[in-house]
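A favour, since you know our structure tokens better than I do. Just paste the record in under my message, thanks.
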Amino acid sequence: MQSLLADVVDYWATVDGGRQFSRTDMEAALCQALLCADRQIAARDAVVTHDPLPAVTGDFEILTKVLRHLIRNAIEYCAVASPRVHISSRRADPDWVFAVADNGPGIDAAFQGRIFEVFKRLHGKEHPGNGLGLAFCKKAIEWHGGRIWVESTPGAGSTFHFSLPAAE
């Protein structure tokens, strides 16, 4: 119940009027997200790698939570013994496009649009969660003026992409 309440508060507080965008180092945001996911990474013997990440214009705390949700999902839903996650970025003027790729089971195309909806889950009770993580990510990225999407093939893993404005 505490987890659900915390996720609901995060989701609804995403676009509160008091937040301001600033130069945000995505390397630092990733380091913070990895600290938050450290137990899960260790428990699953996961390997998380990344390329150098750029600075963007955004909110550090919210972007850290986006990365944390994407990394945790990649690890949680991977059925192999040692999940692998790789974070990268590429420039697509005027934005940066980030990718969080995993070696999980993939997501059928019929369900890919649905996963970003509030309280929508593809799995039963075998995986913890409440269906707010990816909905939070979508809301947060769109609030930053970007977009988020998934590319996935069942049996071949998933890559979640999101775009953010480059730092001035």
